[in-house]
Amino acid sequence: MKVPLLDLKTQYQGIKDEIKEAVEEVFESQQFILGPKVEALEESVADYCGCKYAVGVSSGTDALLIALMAADIGAGHGVITTPYTFFATSGSIIRAGARPLFVDIDPATFNVDPVGIRKLIEVECSFDPATEQLVHRQTATVIRAIMPVHLYGQCADMDPILKLAKKYHLLLFEDGAQAIGAEYLSENNHTMRAGSMGKFGCFSFFPTKNLGGCGDGGMVTTHDRDSAEKLRVLRVHGSKPKYYHQLVGGNFRLDALQAAVLLVKLKYLDGWTAKRRAHASYYNSLFQQSGLVEKGFITPPRAVWEDRFSKRISNPKSAVQNPQFNGHIYNQYVIRAQARDELRAYLVEQGIGTEIYYPISLHQQECFAQLGCSKAGFPESEKAALTTLALPVYPELKPAQLAYVVEKINSFYPDNG
Ligand SMILES: *Cc1c(COP(=O)(O)O)cnc(C)c1O
């Protein structure tokens, strides 16, 4: 049996006719840049994410960069973020001219730990109520924003992050590149979609994401009209009207072809998410039954706000239908595994594809050496980089394939075979 990490061909076979028709429309129109398809996608994504506005851009990376530019974040500024994420999160902060200030992750969710953010703010910074400036003493940067990442498709713990942002006048940028459709249930019982909680939500349509195009693409969401307008100007070199530049922007445009494909796929997204969740649930139960969890060989991903979501579901007016998934969309299903690298090599031999997201934390990247972070300053991120393994969880998988993955993991561990 073969179980690849991802199989986009099977997905394509199911929606081929619709995709071809949508693409054909764009070819017939010969309008390839922005235009009606992009506008339609922007409206649909804004609606899907529970935001007033959405602005299509060239990639998830550019979504982060242009959002930072729209907020005038640059030289002398600090942005609090996680070191355990895809490179683009802090890459964009640096490219904007600002400085990432890392806070370690919560080992239960792999997302930035709000307690760590509070400590960074309250121990390492000084807040001046007169100017409302939060200064990070060691780096002499003015902290302007927090950029949590909803890693693997599960929202960061936003309640405490939102409170800190409010208290210290910080902007919130959600890196939702792995999390379109993910939900967070606040303490006061509001269900909120990824990208709707901060000032800006940033999404990626890279082909391997849960909503992927036929090339690069991205989206920025916001509730703020002026910010949406500024994003639209920045994405065309800051020009408004044409050839008159109030701002220095860039070419951050989304292609009409991408939008056409994504409009087709967006209709299927909830169905695909339901399948990902069903797979995650099946994996969880197989791992429990196998004894691998009890013996400490494997730690499946944790549903952290289960209690909160279960209470909510007992309310008949609840919009939440799947409390056990606590809003997680399982863009990735990530376990922790003992002897992770040996397990991974063994699974390759068995025809099973896996991936490590991410083998090295950002504070340890060579290009960030100038930040002067201690190589061992973020122990939970470092531990995660050494123990996590993503298993196949794409919607089109068959239960027999999931069972095969767990069976092979089982036979890898000596006491369990
Ligand atoms: C994929 C990803 C990005 C970048 O998106 P691209 O579309 O590839 O530029 C940014 N942040 C995270 C967390 C991602 O997973």
How would you characterize the overall build of this protein?
By secondary structure, this protein is an alpha/beta fold. It has two domains: 8-266, 3-Layer(aba) Sandwich (Aspartate Aminotransferase, domain 2); 269-412, Aspartate Aminotransferase, domain 1. The chain has helices at 8-29, 36-49, 60-70, 88-95, 114-124, 158-167, 225-234, 256-266, 269-290, 306-313, 340-349, 379-387, 399-412; strands at 53-57, 77-81, 99-102, 125-128, 133-136, 141-147, 171-175, 183-185, 191-193, 200-204, 218-222, 298-299, 333-337, 388-391. A hairpin with a 5-residue loop joins strand 8 (183-185) and strand 9. The longest helix has 22 residues, at 8-29. The model has no long low-confidence stretch (mean pLDDT 93). Bound molecules: pyridoxal-5'-phosphate.
